[in-house]
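Example 9 (inverse folding). The structure is encoded as follows.
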């Protein structure tokens, strides 16, 4: 029987701790807003709003999917030596806007409509890209290239792998001594 020291329980990050509460609050607010609109305008208006959100969101998702597939097709059709084309910005946020429109609720519809504005979508895309690059640089201790170099030249235990570089384009070095008799091989004769 082996014994070990008990490990302290892992701390939950702030996001993992508050996300369930945030989702629950979101659902309660959505239901409350639908009830308020239903009391003020009637049940048919609420039903029409929900149906319009689902149909509009589906159209936005379809459009975002077509844009993504078109960008993929163009990328695959260009020769490998060609300069990379400008990528479509905010395609992921366009897809998110469509999904938010399809979720039943007025608050999610408003957020989806805000994400449909191209300027906001582009600004969010650039901000997320900068944040992801910063997080990647923090995690690797620099640019991605230095992490790749470290991974290729160091072993997992941190020791440097010794090696020798042999250049094939360099002229052979002249030998100072004549080959010895044991280094010479007799000619091959049948």
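The amino acid assigned to each position is listed next.
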């Amino acid at each position: 029987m082996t014994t070990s020291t008990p490990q302290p329980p892992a701390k939950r990050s702030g996001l993992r701790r508050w996300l369930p509460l945030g989702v629950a609050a979101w659902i309660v607010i959505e239901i409350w807003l639908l009830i308020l609109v239903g009391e003020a305008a009637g049940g048919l208006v609420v039903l029409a709003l929900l149906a319009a959100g689902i149909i509009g969101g589906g159209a936005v998702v379809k459009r975002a999917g077509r844009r993504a597939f078109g960008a993929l097709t163009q990328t695959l059709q260009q020769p490998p030596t060609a300069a990379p084309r400008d990528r479509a910005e905010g395609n992921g946020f366009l897809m998110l806007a469509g999904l938010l429109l399809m979720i039943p609720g007025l608050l999610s519809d408003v957020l989806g409509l805000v994400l449909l504005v191209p300027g906001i979508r582009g600004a969010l895309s650039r901000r997320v890209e900068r944040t992801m690059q910063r997080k990647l640089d923090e995690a690797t201790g620099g640019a991605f290239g230095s992490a790749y170099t470290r991974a290729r030249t160091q072993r997992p235990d941190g020791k440097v792998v010794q090696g020798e570089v042999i250049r094939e384009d360099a002229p052979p070095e002249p030998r100072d001594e004549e080959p010895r008799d044991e280094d010479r091989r007799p000619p091959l004769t049948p």
